[in-house]
Amino acid sequence: MALEILPYSTEHYNTLPELGVAKDQFDAADVNEILYTEIRGAFVKHHVERTVGLTLLHNHFLLEPSQKLVTFKKTVALPCDPDEVTDLPHIHATAWRFTDHGIAPYEFAATTVGTTLDSPSMQVFLQEFAAVLKKWNLTNVLGIYSIEESSVDGPQTMEITEGRCNITLDTDLHPHEGTTIDAMWQFYTETGKGPGRCKNACKGVPHVKRHFSKT
Asked: Which of 128, 165, 208, 211 has its CA 20 to 30 A from that of 18?
């Protein structure tokens, strides 16, 4: 049976943990022990490693009931109410979490092309990966994100949250001091590149659970 792609709900985003809590859950589950073995194996086995990657489930701030977190031009993500903004381009889901009822989108991007999750081959991967998450009690810890073709093998990036704006920069451009937390991974099949790498890190502040500046 196909894994149902659920309609968007703000609750799918708002009930995600804050960054510090997400990192604690990741560490407590010893995810690194299986990150490049069983988890990577599911991506590579089904040849989806250049289409979707692994993400640490977390939120950046809370959204209003009608809002989506939408990334524009691959760099700036803002809370947006699509029904109130008439000149928005196409909005496609870019990150999903697994639930008891299916797979739910929780982040989006303004782009003309989206990632399709309902193809037969992708559905086989989703079902197997959902089983891996359930086996290791990681359903509320890890999800998947879409990899744009232009960003495959691209530089590592960093997310910085300022107020209610989430900014993505190349890692050598970020202006803040503090701690970073690995949040996205891209896996490889080529042995010369190794099994994979962190694709995106989030900026955190020690002893502060939410990773945005108070204004």
From this structure: 128
CB atoms within 10 A of CB 19: 26
Residue 6's identity, in one-letter code, is L
d(CA 21, CA 141): 10
- Going residue by residue through the chain (215 aa), what tens digit of pLDDT does each one get? 789 999 999 999 999 999 889 999 999 999 999 999 999 999 999 999 989 999 999 998 999 998 999 988 878 888 988 777 666 668 899 999 999 999 999 999 988 788 999 999 999 999 999 999 999 999 999 999 998 765 566 677 778 777 887 778 776 655 555 567 888 898 887 654 556 655 555 544 322 223 332 22
Q: Alpha carbon of 125 to those of 3, 93, 142, 147: distances in Å?
A: 10, 18, 15, 16
Rounded Cα distance, 192 and 195, in Å: 9
Give the whole-angstrom CA distance, residue 208 versus residue 161.
Answer: 13
How far apart (Å, rounded) are the C-alpha atoms in residues 169 and 155? Answer: 10
What is the reported pTM?
0.85
Largest CA distance in the chain: 48
The full length of the chain comes to: 215
Token pair listed for 3: 């894994």
Say if CB 100 and CB 7 are below 8 A apart.
Answer: no
| Pairing state between β 196-204 and 212-213 | unpaired
Residue 68: which of 87, 83, 89 has the closest Cα?
A: 83
